[in-house]
Amino acid sequence: MSDKGKSSTISGFYKLPVEKRVEFVKNFSNLNDEETKLFSSCLDIGIANRMIENVLGTFEIPLGIAVNFLINGKDYLVPMAIEEPSVVAAASNAAKIARIKGGFKTECTDPLMIGQIQILHMDDVFEATKKIMNKKKEILHLANEQDKVLVKFGGGAKDIEVRILDSPIGKMIVTHLIVDVRDAMGANAVNTMCEALAPMLEELTGGKVRLKILSNLADKRIVKAKAVFDKEKIGGEHVVDAFLESYNLAAIDPYRAATHNKGIMNGIDALIIATGNDFRAIEAGAHAYASRNGQYTSLSHYYKDKNGNLVGELELPMAVGIVGGAGNIYPKAKLCKKILGIKTAKELAEIVVSLGLAQNFAAVLALSTVGIQKGHMSLHAKNIAVMAGAKGNEIDKVASQMIKEGKIKLDRAEEIIKKIR
Ligand code: MEV
Question: CA 78 to CA 108: how far, in whole Å?
């Protein structure tokens, strides 16, 4: 158990019926009966109708829970909204292995987001740059006037940076406004500030402001997670070596890096969605960050420690919020935040990146040893059995027969159903 509360470790969790799993989470996270009922409810159509346009209904995906997570000495149950089989099991298993050597340790920067203001049509971009820098104090003041609440909580516009860029249509300036967004994702606060600064920057530079928008390459809002994976637990030092051979392809080859990073995002997106955050923003930031040195590469990094154990590290921008946005509208997203027991956006970001590392470790370990299909087989076979019309306990019977035969096909499932009925 961690030093800060209940343990998230439970063996055979996947074998429990849904009600028992819910009970475990209810006890772990002190949920009340009403909150517990939310697990099996759908988003209210009235809420959905206010969230987006042209609403017809809602679209459900499974919500699972990853167990065993120990992050910075604290136990977490991690909600994951995802349609892909094996992902939740893989994360739980990786977290169980990471616990042996103390779980995940994280570090992160302040929650600094970047807003971009593009300025064109100036006679002298260097002169214009100087004028902007000389008025830094006034610019920050005007930006902070737009969000007094954020400033009250210690956030707000903190700095500006000016970049001169050459383009096919001539030179331009991009002013970066650096904003500490505290517990928000920050898009609204930053975009409002950037729009408010446009007239001032036009007057200062004599140029024309075009784009005023947040950058999803949030490279001043970085989280790093690290874990040591016990060599014996994963099958010995030769498995660590096999793992590193697999990892090295992702480090040098964009074709492999894309798939490797997709495995990381399997975990990350699932938690981002469960907490009502913007997964497109996180994806965009992650892949841009993976290309920051000119070649797309692996977001994670692995090596062997002096004892032969495998060390994994994952570093990426993590623009997540716990206030504002859809996460405050969705009842289930609020519930997922309660399950996590998080107090700050920073804490959420640290869990997200730890989960990404766990997911990546699990995928590369499977790929380096038994392959990925074995883990997928059981749920895949069950899905095929259901598609073929299996009901109740027929599903398990049909699935295990198909796995035994090594033939997981719809027509075979139909034959088996006929035979057992
Ligand atoms: C599948 O969703 C994810 C993997 O392809 C990740 C990887 O290849 O590392 C298994």
Answer: 19
pTM of the complete model beyond 0.70: yes
Helix (H) / strand (E) containing 204: helix 187-205
Relative to the CA of 360, which ligand 1 atom is closest? 9
Read off φ and ψ for residue 142, nearest 5 degrees: -65, -40
E-assigned strand segments in 98-150: 105-108, 112-120
172 token code pair: 């331009």
Considering 84, 110, 230, 241, which one is annotated as catalytic? 84
Which of 249, 266, 269 to probe ligand 1 with, by most ligand atoms within 8 A of CB? 266
Is the Cβ–Cβ distance between 155 and 181 less than 8 Å?
A: yes
pLDDT tens by residue, 326-340: 888 899 999 999 999
Residues with C-beta less than 6 Å from any ligand 1 atom: 84, 259-260, 262-263, 266, 363-364, 367, 372
Task: State the pLDDT confidence band at 4, using cuts at 50, 70 and 90.
Answer: low
Annotation marks residue 84 as catalytic:
yes
Task: For 372-389, write each residue's pLDDT tens digit.
Answer: 777 677 778 888 999 999
